[in-house]
Design a protein that fits this description.
Two copies of one chain form a homodimer. The first copy, chain A, is of the alpha/beta class. Among the domains of chain A are: 202 residues, Rossmann fold, CATH 3.40.50.1100; 81 residues, Rossmann fold. Chain A is 37% helix and 16% strand. Chain A has a six-stranded mixed β-sheet with strand order 4-5-13-10-11-12, sandwiched between helices. A four-stranded parallel β-sheet of chain A has the order 8-7-6-9, sandwiched between helices. The N and C termini of chain A lie far apart (69 Å). At the A-B interface, helix 4, helix 5, strand 8, helix 6 and helix 12 of A face helix 4, helix 5, strand 8, helix 6 and helix 12 of B. Strand 8 of chain A pairs parallel with strand 14 of chain B.
Amino acid sequence: MALDAADLGPATSLTCRECGESYELGPRYACEQCFGPLEIAYDFTGVTRASIEAGPRNIWRYRGLLPVPSNVQDTPNTEPGFTRLVRADHLAESLGMQRLWVKDDSGNPTHSFKDRVVAVALAAARELGFKVLACPSTGNLANAVAAAAARAGIRSAVFVPADLEQQKIITTAVYGGTFVTVRGNYDDVNRLASEIAGEQEDWAFVNVNVRPYYAEGSKTLGYEIAEQLGWRLPDQIVVPVASGSQLTKIDKAFQELIRLGLVEDRPYKVFGAQATGCSPVAAAFKNGHDVVRPVKPDTIAKSLAIGNPADGPYVLDVVRRTGGAVEDVTDAEVVEGIRLLAGTEGIFAETAGGVTVGCLRKLVASGALDPEAETVIINSGDGLKTLDAVAPVARPSAEIAPTLEDFRASGLA
Amino acid sequence: MALDAADLGPATSLTCRECGESYELGPRYACEQCFGPLEIAYDFTGVTRASIEAGPRNIWRYRGLLPVPSNVQDTPNTEPGFTRLVRADHLAESLGMQRLWVKDDSGNPTHSFKDRVVAVALAAARELGFKVLACPSTGNLANAVAAAAARAGIRSAVFVPADLEQQKIITTAVYGGTFVTVRGNYDDVNRLASEIAGEQEDWAFVNVNVRPYYAEGSKTLGYEIAEQLGWRLPDQIVVPVASGSQLTKIDKAFQELIRLGLVEDRPYKVFGAQATGCSPVAAAFKNGHDVVRPVKPDTIAKSLAIGNPADGPYVLDVVRRTGGAVEDVTDAEVVEGIRLLAGTEGIFAETAGGVTVGCLRKLVASGALDPEAETVIINSGDGLKTLDAVAPVARPSAEIAPTLEDFRASGLA
C-alpha cells in the first residue's frame, strides 16, 4: 500500500508499548522486536477548546487528537459520539453519593461505544488503503462494523460463532455485508480472522491488524466527559473492563488534555469494573499481582467476557497510579445494577452497564470510592441487546381483566 | 388542581380545532361544545435563533415554543431530542435523488420519537398537578412513559394487552413502575385507561387526558430539522402516519418558524407514509375523500397500526394544502425499506422507518415527489424493537468451518 500520501492527522508513528521501538505509520499492530502492542504517537498542534467546540457534534470534533485524516468528517461514517452525559441525582441518592454522572453511550448509532472505535478504525483503514472492513465478534462490534461499512459504502466482512443467538445474527445481517458464521467458539473465530488477515492484504480487521488505530477511538469518551463537564476532569470514573482498552484510553485522553492545557491538572481516580465470572483483572488487583492470569469466562455479561484481556496489565498500572481499584460483581448483582439504573434514571443498560453500576455500589460500600467526590460512570451499551439477562425479573405488576372493578381490586389505584 | 400558579411557558389557552371554542389551560382534551380535539394556543415572545441556540442540546432548547415551564430543563426528564439529521447520499443515489436527509429519532433515550411527546406531557402534567404518569400502549409509548417517570422520580402506570410479546414486556417492566397487563385487545386497554382517567384525578394518561400537551412534543421534530439544515425548511418531507399527529405537528412547527421569522417563508410539501395493511389516510387521499374511514389493521408495522386515526382528516388538510400526497406500501416493501436504509446508510429502523423509506421510493417512482428537490424523511424508531420483521431475510452469507481452506472454498474472499 502507498502510505507516503497517507494523512493520519496528528499521528506521527507507532511505538511499542513494551520496548519503546518506533515504527512508521502503517498497518502494523505488534512490535517486531518483542511482540508488544503498538500505540499511536502524536504531534498535536493547534488544538484548542475553541477549535474543538467549532467542530461537528460527534467524535470528529476531536479529529486533531486522533489518527484520522484532517478532512475525516467529509466522508460518510456512522458519526458516533457526543452522547449524553446525564446528571444522575436519583441514582446518586440511592447510593448515598453527592454528584454522579452517567456517560450514556447507548445513544450511539448502533447503541454501543463500539461505534467510536470502529469509526476511527474505518477512517484510518481507508487512508491506509484497505478495501474491506472486517472483524471477528460476538455482538456489539459486529453491529458496529456492518453498519459503518454500509454507511461508508464499502464492503464489510463479519465473522461470528455459528451458535450465536438469532437476535445478534439479525442485527448484523440486516446491514447486508458479508456475514460468515463459523462452526467453532469465539477463539476459533478469532484465530481464523488473524489467518485471513494474513492472506487478504486489503482487509482491515478492526480489532486485529488495525487495532492501534481502532483502540484510539475510546479516547473520545474521555474528551467528551471533560468537555461536557465544562472542560474539567471528574474526581473519579468507573469504567467496565473487557480487554481493558477503554479504561486505559480514557486515562490517556485525560493525560493528553492536561498536557495540552485544555483542562486543569488535578488528581483523578480510575476504577475498573468486571463481572465475577470473568474477573482476571480484578483478581490480579486484589492479589497485588502485576500479571493477569487468564480465566475461562462464565457470566451473563458477554460483552465483557474476555478471559485473557490484552490490556489487563495496563489497567492495573492506571488504577494503581491514580489510586483507584478494580472491583467485580456477581451476575445477580449485574441484574440488580441494570434495574437500579433503569429505575432511578430511565436508562436501560446492557449487562456491561449493570456491571458498572454494581461495582459502583460495591466500591461506595467498601469505601474505596468517595461518595462525596464527583464521579462519572460509563454505560457502554444498550439493554435492548441483552434482554435475556433481565427477562426473569422484569415482570408485570399484575394482570387484570379490562374492567374498572378488576383494576380497583388489584390494589394498584 | 390549583392551576392559577401554573407556568406553561408561552401557552395561553386551549382552543377547539373544530369549532374554535376557547378554554383556560388545564387538564382538558375535548371540546365541551362539539367534542372536537383541543389544541394549545400560544403567545410567543422573545424567541430568536440565538435564544434557541443558547439552550441545551435537547428539546428544551425550544421550550419557548412549547407548553412547558420556563425552567423545565432544571427538572429531570429523559431530555430527548436533537437527534442526528443524517445526510443520506447513498440512499439518495439508489433512488435517483439529489439531496436527501434522514432525521434519525432512534437516537432518543428509549429509541423512538415517543420520548419527545412524553417529555412534554410529563413537564406539563407535573405543572398541572398530576402525580402519576400513565398510558395505554403496545410498545414504544410504554417504554417512553416508564423511562421518563423513573428518571423524574414519579410513579408510572402502564397498561398493555396481556398477549404482548415478551420482549416488549421486559423493555417496559425493567424501569420498575406499575405495569399492568390487561386481558383484552388494545381497544379494551384504551377504554379501560379512559375509565381510570375519569376516576383517578391525579393520573395523567399522556395520550388521553393530557393529549393536547403531549402532541405538541412532535413539533420539536420540525424545529430541529429546520435548525439542523441551518435555519431553513426542506422542499419535501416524508412522515409516517399512525394517529397522524406527528405529521400535522411538524407542519405546525414549520408554520410557526415562518411566522416568527426564524426561517424563510417558502413552499414545502408534506407527504404521509402508511402500511397498506393499515392505510385509511392513504385510501382517503387517493379517493379524494375528506373523511377517513376506519379499518382493521393487519400489518407488521404495529407502531403505525391505528385503524381510526384521530388526526387523519388534518393530515389530509396538510398534505393537500402543501401539494404532497399520502402513499402506502405492502409489508414486503416495508421489509425492503428497512434493508435498503440499513444497507445504504447503516441505520437500522423499526418497521415504521421501513414504511417511510418504502413510500419514499414509491413516491419518487410515481413522480409525486421531486427527486431533485431537498427531501427529509423521518425514522421514528429502532430496528432493535422489531427484529421479527426482518428475521426471515436478515441471514448470514455462509456458514463455514474455522479453517482457511473452508473460507477460501466459500468464494467470499
